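Exercise: predict the structure of this protein bound to S-adenosylmethionine.
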Amino acid sequence: MKTLLVIGIGAGDPDYLTLQAVKALNRVDVFFLMDKGPAKHKLLDLRREICQRYIVDRTYRFVEADSPERQRGDQAYAATVEDLNLAKQATFERLINEQLSDGQCGGFLVWGDPALYDSTVRILQAILEAGRCAPFEFEVIPGITSVQALAARHKVPLNSIGGSLEITTGRRLAAGQVGDADSVVVMLDAEDAYRQVGDPDTRIYWGAYVGTPDEILIEGRLADVADDIERTRKAARKANGWIMDTYLLRKPR
Ligand SMILES: C[S@@+](CC[C@H](N)C(=O)[O-])C[C@H]1O[C@@H](n2cnc3c(N)ncnc32)[C@H](O)[C@@H]1O
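Solution:
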């Protein structure tokens, strides 16, 4: 039987790895590396650094595969994500069939935590259901999400006392599709969606590249800091070629 480990590696700082993740790394024979886009090299280097740092007295190898990209255009967002996941499923199936022998252990190093805006677990479940690979076992090892890292770096709790927390996307915030939680974390925001928030007294705790040497943090009333965030974000994206940012919005009492 083959085994697959989906290992959350935390959202940036190699020190975010949990002891459970370190133990899991030391069971893996083949790591599948799937990053894409302009951040690809930095994120791949970080994964290699993590393996170098935490794996002792064990031989392992990396297999890199080009991760399919989502089609951008007129199609509905959910449909393009579904197509993307089907393409990823085909890639994963090929990797598992061709690169892993019976009795070996394969590892996927997932940014942050595999349960949050990541499709690896969903895809492995779909592969088992499709039955085109020999059956395998898989385990999920949780990691520190960018949400937790953001809250820690700003030294702020995610929820107000007894309040609810919503975690959503920039796309949904921009479309006004948020609930009535007094704390909202926004991820995957390509378009400065915090600009759409009506109440200028809302507080924003914004962070880019959190936990990495490029980290940038800005905090304040939206009315006071929105321009600064937009400027900083634009400049950082230009300088690095990519940006990874998250923010917490806290409605005023
Ligand atoms: C595809 S999601 C993956 C989330 C990841 N699984 C996690 O647990 O944080 C990518 C989004 O996570 C957020 N993100 C991930 N790492 C980040 C970091 N180090 N700093 C700020 N935001 C980050 C950004 O909103 C980015 O667009």
